[in-house]
Amino acid sequence: MATPTLQVALDLLELDRAVEIADEAVRGGADWIEVGTPLIKSEGMQAVRTLRERFPGHEIVADMKIADTGAVEVEMAAKSGAGVVCILADADDTVIVEAVRSARKYGVRLMADLINVGDPVSRSRELAALGVDYINAHVGIDQQMIGRSSLDLLRRLAGEVGTPVAVAGGLDAETASEAVAAGASIVIVGGNIVKAADVTGAARRVREAIDRPEIRPREEESRDAAIRRLFEGVSAPNVTDAMHRKGAMAGIVSICGRVKAVGPAVTVRTVAGDWAKPVEAIDVAGPGDVLVISNDGKTDVAPWGELATHSAKNRGVAGVVIDGAVRDVDDIREMKFPLFATATVPNAGDPKGLGEINTEIVCCGQEVRPGDWIVADESGVVVVPRERAYEIARRAMEVRKNEERIREEIRRGRTLSEVSELLKWEKRH
Ligand SMILES: O=C([C@H](O)CO)[C@H](O)[C@H](O)COP(=O)(O)O
User: Fold this and answer.
1) Is 26 helix (H, G, I), strand (E, B) or coil?
2) 6 vs 4: CA distance, rounded Å
3) What are the tens digits of pLDDT across the range 144-197?
4) 289 & 359 share domain
5) In degrees rounded to 5, what are phi and psi of residue 294?
6) Hey, which family's this protein in (predicted)?
7) Ligand 1 test: best mutation among 10, 11, 150, most atoms within 8 Å of CB?
8) CATH assignment at residue 351
9) Separation of 191 CA from ligand 1 center, angstroms?
């Protein structure tokens, strides 16, 4: 088997950063350098020219995602220095045929991107017959966030397609190795290399993995376990970033400082400090759940205190969030329990039994339904609708990864404004 090609996808917006990251990735063993679609949209063909000039010994791939005017776009990329140009596999055949003619004329190769193609096997055969050089089994970044897998797509193509097959979509060292074992000859890795603080190390790990392809037995993980693992690895701010700044409760703080709660909500509505339903809800909750209590926003009387906290902790409840006040704060702080509230007050209410458990409530301005996911830390509390929990958990992890590289660049001496090219990206009115 020929040595697989490692293609690093520079999915960035800033050319200077892309050049620096490409240099580090090449040192880690990347063979081909892909000028990613976001970079092309941000910097145009200048990005292709610059990378061609800076890396004379490496193939430059222009991820144009061509959908129309095949000949013109291939010509632009070829004349700027690309050796491989990417076209959408579901572009009309008229576009593909023109792109192939242009590619032959300018001496470049065409890679067709299977993103969103309904019948990848027959489309790949058609593309090969039309003269496309490579087929890319690609699952896009937004599709990855809802759990689609590029390895599944690649496996559907195995043995069915004559042209060399590339694979892209959320690959890391482990999945890249599996991709080669499943027949990929070009492995494309974006985020897991270019967002790493140590780009060279990340590229090297992928390089070593694809040079020794193997299929490792995988442990099955349930959706809920994956959601919990991902949310436990990110912060509440990462989660609101992933939700386009939605979901954060207003005016609520962590009572015990640096603690974190992650879990599906068991909701409680109570009235005027009545602590019967909040305490009964401890028995309704399973280990790992988060109690979310609305006390109608009243803060002169507490529906929660130390004994309830003790009981919740024993039951394995992951945290308690109260739109209202708590008491016995000194004892609760000693327990280091993830408790979030809007106020503290010494008064307790009476256990009258008013209110409801597991109905829709509004807590600190956010609607919370039973089973919605809660992520709470010292920055505050975020509610994630249960239908989108997996997707948001994946996106929040991407936000975190993205910050790793930015943090590293700040550590090396750039300002945040420089790294993110703030002036360039200010909104024009
Ligand atoms: O093509 C890509 C995507 O559509 C954004 O332009 C990526 O380069 C490709 O998905 C590889 O990146 P990762 O999925 O982050 O590995």
Assistant:
1) helix
2) 7
3) 999 999 999 999 998 899 999 999 999 999 999 999 999 999 999 999 999 999
4) yes
5) -105, 120
6) Belongs to the HPS/KGPDC family. HPS subfamily.
7) 11
8) 3.50.30.40
9) 7
